[in-house]
Design a protein that fits this description.
By secondary structure, the protein is α/β, with parallel strands linked by helices. The protein has one domain: Rossmann fold (3-Layer(aba) Sandwich), CATH 3.40.50. The chain is built from 8 helices and 7 strands, in the order βαβαβαβαβαβααβα. It has a 7-stranded parallel sheet with strand order 4-3-2-1-5-6-7, sandwiched between helices. Helix 1 packs parallel to helix 2 and helix 1 runs parallel beside helix 8. The radius of gyration is 16 Å and the shape is globular. The N and C termini lie far apart (37 Å).
Length: 190
């Protein structure tokens, strides 16, 4: 069986001394030790941390970059085995969301929120096949508590999102769910 790929969404801002960077580093290590390939946005911050953690644990990494960010002076982090570069941000976003056998969102900014929201929408509508979508950390809980309104978000749609608190819990959840088929209905719900 081919190695499974886990897409990890995360922000570019957290510095190495931050708690978010350290959590991403540990997530990368645990994913690699569990035998997963780590796919991330390929730049700095928690994207670099998850890639570095995976490399330090002997794992493989893929970074998905975009021409637009080259013009801003951003470069891929040094912990990537493979860099996949897209000409547009939309193509990059689509690949990040669809290429993973499971998806894990770390805290981040607008880009991370976009990745999580697109993944959630594509899973909710059945546009992509069912797969785990985990939100790692308490910041996601606070965001969802403010956002989830039963008038707009049905229970089954909210259930697509799985909140986890630690890298250990995230990897254990992914492992357990990839061993059995996901049961997410795929009917449009607007």
């Amino acid at each position: 069986m081919p190695q499974r790929v886990i897409s990890v969404f995360g922000g570019s801002a957290p510095p190495p001394e931050s708690a978010d960077f350290q959590i991403a580093l540990e997530l990368g290590r645990r994913l690699a030790r569990a035998g997963f390939i780590v796919l991330s946005g390929g730049y700095g911050g928690t994207m670099e941390a998850v890639s570095r953690g995976a490399k330090e644990a002997g794992g493989r990494t893929i970074g998905v970059t975009v021409d637009l960010f080259d013009r801003w002076g951003l470069t891929a982090n040094p912990y990537l085995d493979v860099e996949i570069k897209f000409p547009t941000l939309f193509q990059r976003l689509h690949y990040l969301v669809t290429a993973g056998d499971a998806l894990i969102a770390l805290p981040g900014g607008i880009g991370t929120l976009s990745e999580m929201a697109l993944a959630w929408s594509l899973l909710q509508t059945g546009e992509i096949s069912p797969r785990p979508l985990l939100l790692l950390g308490s910041r996601w809980r606070r965001l969802l508590e403010a956002y989830l309104d039963p008038v707009y978000i049905r229970g089954e749609d909210a259930a697509i999102l799985q909140l986890v608190e630690t890298p250990e819990e995230a990897v254990a959840t992914v492992q357990a769910q990839l061993e059995r088929p996901m049961e997410i209905s795929s009917r449009p719900r607007g």
